Amino acid sequence: LLQGPDHQLNKIIIGVDVAGKGNDNTVASVRWCNTVLWLKYWSGVVTDETEKMLTRLAHQLEELGYSVEMYVDAPGLGQGVIDHLRSNGLLVYEYWPQEKPPSDQKRYSNLKAWMHFKMRVNLLEGKEAFYPLSNLRSELMQSKYDYTKDDKIEILKPSASKKSDSDQSPDFCDSYVISGVPLYGRMSPEENLRLI
Questions:
Q1: Which residue has the higher pLDDT, 186 or 141?
Q2: How far is Cα 70 from Cα 97, in angstroms, rounded to an integer?
Q3: 111 and 100 in contact (C-beta within 8 Å)?
């Protein structure tokens, strides 16, 4: 699993999907190289609690000798969480899913669609390992997509996918995809990930 992108063995990456509304969970995918070691998740839309839990998690990992980088879904409530985490001295990058993809811009409508398919291929090819007792694999494989009027792939929101059995947000999948951005995104922070 250590083949592929350049891996820093002393670095942990945390990809965070912040709960929005309804039945959403906040999910943090804790990644070491090509392996998601575990998923931390909790319900609710309380940004103060989210910030405290993520800060505690980062400090625990730092105490074990790892450097920690977080990539947080910035739209919506994510921006408030990012501001709090940065005020605690943590290294946090903003993930903007609607930004342009690093390649295949004629095929994918945005960074989210590009990353989603990249991570799906990596999973199917055995290039990724992850915590087995999660909804991650099923969410990633069952996610819906469509084509824009410009004939580009876009990932559909749960309500737009017209699923009759569930209208839940794919929180585990989103967090997992976000955690892969620094490994596979191949874009400069100035272009798609804003580090302030």
A1: 141
A2: 15
A3: yes
